[in-house]
Structures are given as structure tokens and as C-alpha cells.
Design a protein that fits this description.
about 290 residues; alpha/beta; 5-stranded mixed β-sheet; transcription; LysR family transcriptional regulator; HTH-type_LysR_regulators; WH-like_DNA-bd_sf
Amino acid sequence: MIEIRDLQLLSALARHRHFAKAAEECGISQPAFSMRIRNLEDRLGVSIVRRANRFQGLTEEGEMIVQRARRILDDTKALEQQVLAAKGEITGTLILGVIPTAVAFTGRLIKHLRRAHPRIVTRIETMSATAIQHRLDEGSLDAGVTYGDSIGTDLRQVQPLYEETYVLLVPSHMTDRSDPIPWARVADFPLSLLEPQMQNRRILDRIFAEQGLHPDVVAETSGFTASMVMAREGLAATVVPRVLVRALGDLKGTRVLPLVDPVVSKPICLATLIRDPELPTVEALRAVVTSLR
């Protein structure tokens, strides 16, 4: 019989597309990992992995097996959670993919989930909106907090969370103004922004392009922490979501200026796959979201 553990290893390999990274995630050595994959191929009588000096991808049969494996793993996870839920407790690990701009909001959301269901352990993974959609589809995420206009609704359930708006976080020595600032003036400051492939950066680049602006980008980061530290240290200004500044409170040495002309807002949502049966942990999360609206 095929073991659930073998399906977990295969799913990790398909996700990472790298034997060593997949083995590390699964907590076993690479030689042992490779041996189990080969044993699975021998048991099924087909080649699952295309090999050369390194991982070259999955065979056609391998892609089919991975799709089946993910459904089996999803059903197994649901069964385990439902058995515990029948005993009166919702428990398990909830894996959330979150865009960088929504991390602060997600932290508050998990606080409410924890109060309602203290046995749920939440794993928050920060990633792009594109990665969230991909990993939801492959079943390696339970839910995603992402841009509402970047997620398809076919086979997914979407719940609105809030509207993302933006402020300029600027070192105090660079300006003495405290009133809202038009986007056209943002280009006057040296800026630290997210990397170009991130959805938030694409939003900002589109605004700059529409206004014919050429911002002075002096640093690019994969998250907001480094950019906010640079603002506090007086090196560069940055554009951040208002919800993030509210969550962190006063940042010494900076000014927070609402951005206007235009006032830009983007819908943030909770996205989950439509499953039957549903994971109790995901049902619990959706119920918390509904209670907060």
C-alpha cells in the first residue's frame, strides 16, 4: 500500500522542485528522501520524476499522481480535524498565505481566532498575491489574505476584509508638513519600495506612470520592515499601507502623511478553496471574519 508519508514527500517535491529543499521541509536527509521517491516509483511501476544531474520536473504520470496525492492529503487533514471537532474541539494547524501589506491586519485577525479557538495553531507565510493563488490551487495553503482583484472566484470562496489605503512614511528631517501629500510630491523623496514583482509595487508603479512621475528608488525590499527602518534612520521615505502604521504606532523620527490626488484603495480579502467537506479550521476562520464585519 502507498503510505501517506510518501504522498507528503512527493507533494513537497512538487512544490519546491528541489530534492534538498523538499527533504529539509520534511525533516529527513536527502538520500533517504530520494530513496523513498524511487521506492514509490517502483511500487507504482512508473517514473514520477524526470532526472538528470538535478530535478528536471515531473513526468506526465507524475503530475497526475501529485494531483491525486494532494486531494488525498487534503481529505486526510479534513478527516483528522473533523474527528476532533466531533469531540467538541477544533484543533489543528491553519496555514495562511499573506501578502506583505496585510501582515499587520492578519495578526489582529489571528488574535480573534485564538480567543475563539485556542487549540488552532496558525502558520503565517508571507508571499506575493500570485504565489497565494498558485499555492491555494495546489492545496499547500488553507487560506490566503490577498488582493480581492487578483484572485479568481471559480473554485474559491472570497470574503472581503478591508480597503487598503496608503500613506507616505517620511523621515522628519526631509519635510515639515503634516497635511496630506499628493502622489506627485512623492517623487521628490528618495524611496525604498517593495520589489518590482510584488503586487503592491506594481500598484505604485502604475500610479507613478499614470502621473508621468519618475521616482528616485534607492532601495527595494521583500517586506516593509527594512523600508520602515530606513525611514526611521533618515535614509529614505516609503509608501506603506495605513493599516500597518496604525498597528505599529508612532515611529520616532518619521512623519506619516496620507496620500491624496488620487486617494487609492485596493480591496483585501480572505480567499479559501471550496471544499466538500470543509476543513474545520478554515470554517472557524471564516466565522471569525464574519463576526468582525
